[in-house]
Automatic annotation (TrEMBL), chain A:
GO terms for cellular component: plasma membrane. One of its GO terms (molecular function) is transmembrane transporter activity. Residues 277-392 form the ABC3 transporter permease C-terminal domain. The keyword Flavoprotein does not apply. InterPro entries: ABC3_permease_C, MacB_PCD, Macrolide_Exporter_MacB. Belongs to the ABC-4 integral membrane protein family. Keywords: Cell membrane, Membrane, Transmembrane, Transmembrane helix. It is a multi-pass membrane protein. This is ABC transporter permease. Residues 28-241 form the MacB-like periplasmic core domain. Its main location: membrane. The chain crosses the membrane at residues 28-48, 273-295, 316-343, 363-383. It comes from Haloferax prahovense (strain DSM 18310 / JCM 13924 / TL6).
Automatic annotation (TrEMBL), chain B:
SUPFAM superfamilies: P-loop containing nucleoside triphosphate hydrolases. One of its GO terms (molecular function) is ATP binding. Residues 1-25 are annotated as: Disordered. It comes from Haloferax prahovense (strain DSM 18310 / JCM 13924 / TL6). Pfam families: ABC_tran. Residues 1-15 have a biased composition (Acidic residues). Residues 37-267 form the ABC transporter domain. Coiled coil: none annotated. GO terms for cellular component: membrane protein complex; plasma membrane. Keywords: ATP-binding, Nucleotide-binding, Transport. This is ABC transporter ATP-binding protein. It comes from the Archaea. The keyword Cytoplasm does not apply.
Amino acid sequence: MSWLRRVTARFPTVVLARRNLSRATARTTLAVVAIVIGVVAIGTIGAGGEAFKQDQMEAYEGFGGTATVSPVYYQNDDGDIVGGISDKDVSRMRQVTSGATVHPVIERWDTVVRTSSGETSPSAQVKGLAALGTFYEAQSGSIPDSWRQQVVVGSRFADNNDVETGDQLTVTINGSFERTFRVAAVLEPQGFADQLQADRSVFLPFDRLSQLEDSDSKYGSVIVRVDPQTGSIDEAAESLETEFNTRRRTIAVSEVQEQRERFSQTFEMINQFLIGVGSISLLVAAVTIANTMLMTAIEREREIGVMRAVGYPKRAVVSLLLAEATILGLVGAAIGVPLALGIGMGLNQFLVGDPLAFTAAGLRYVGLGALFGVLTSLFAGVYPAWKSANKRPVEALE
Amino acid sequence: MRWDISDSEEAEPTEPAEAGREDLPSDAASLAGDLILRGEDVTKEYQTGTQTVRALKGIDFGIAPSDFVAIVGPSGSGKSTLLNLLGLLDVPTDGAVSLRGQDVSTFSDADRTRKRKRAIGFVFQSFYLIPTLTALENVEMPRMLDKTPVKTRERAKTLLQRVGLGDRLDHYPDELSGGQKQRVAIARSLINDPALLLADEPTGNLDRDTGDEILALFDELRAEEDVAIVTVTHDAYVAEEADRVVNLVDGVIEDTGETAADGGHGA
């Protein structure tokens, strides 16, 4: 007796189940395909969603222990809109948040950016931030520490306008200031969750922009950063609230960590919803398998009657049919998992730029898809198996 | 073997049965201990819609080792019902069937399945082999769930050799002729060394020569292993071979007759 037979003889139910499945190849294949679709749907949506999330989350990298402060505008008694953040406000911020670094950001909306080919880019946002290099990394070129004749551009701006490191950009502000800058660096893509929307921005030297501002409250926002090792961003945010918002709410403080969590939660919900939609395909697969197993049970009624007659207990018949259903699920999962991983690799390449950028959470969804696939099959087999086993052999053999 | 007639009429179904039991000679009482299967005043009713059909109307029977009983009768006479009762596939509505002295009605479904496996072999008219299993595997099938694959395989090989299919072990049912399939089915019915073999039209789908082989095989089994054989048949030729013929008409036994073949196998 061969070793193979010795092994298989230990699992006679599995052997019988596999043989039975092989007799209706087309039906078996269709049932497996249904499971594969379900497993792939859940696995791909889950893993792809996680890759997308990871991609967007990267925007928060470099913003740990950071809060953004934006001005609250209001109408004064004369009916004028007032508000904004001035140099004085920035100094007060530096005072009340001892230990934190405070980076004011200038945003100009009255600008025109022209590339060397003469095209203008209407969507470009011109900004000034002194310590740019502490927040972002360059994908090409390098972010200068102090600069006067150069600009740094976001990835999307660079893509849309065919701008590369070393190119010339002409920036006109308020119709009066016009100057040509050399592109020193293109930033890494940041995603839409980025604090400063850096992807579509053109960063001018901070001092240049600062000189152009004639209004007192010239800053569009302020980034406050605390080294998490030595201080707490929560305390800094609280100090700012106390200092600026006690009498009237003049600033809004938003901790990046909180934004990140909100984003993460929102995203999680969307992803879960999509996976829920994907799970419907498994439900359909369950119906298919239940149908397959019912047909099998009816077709083999006499055969099962004979098995019961020659001494197979009900339990054995149930096990046999459940084994068949489970094999369908296992085969479906075995095909579905590599497929889901393959499609996931494509999504990773597309979204994160690295085919192997699977997150643990993403892989968990693939595993979950496989598990659900098998359980769905098993569950779908219960009724046909029960029905089959409870058919009296006398009736089955008539 | 004893095959008691019980002419139960509609009016008083119990009385003739009582009479039948009193008929048992005292030595038959001790004989009753040897009986594989015994039925007393066995009645079986079916519910079809609002009607109650009495398929068996109080019959008595006893089957001893190496008996060969042929049950004959027109269709609808209760033959299949009787065979089902003999095979512990069903329980009587009234009366008692006992397997080696134990009342079958006291068994749970699982018990009956277990006893059936141990004591009774089935041969069906349409063979009912499993198409995805080889001849050898089909013979092993009833014992496949037992954790004795080596022993089972040896036994199955021996049985197939015995029925003359030693060279067809790895053939699938669709590669076998009708007679070969029936021989595989008989080998399958013997895998658990049953005391009783129930054969429903065992030669029904076979030509005369092949039928002869099957009958010869039955004789051999009775002579060598004391297997009792009960067969339902339309085939007068098979009935002639039996050492007792039970003529079932409309749920009652009309008459029985010992045939020439009752050469010492009967009790």
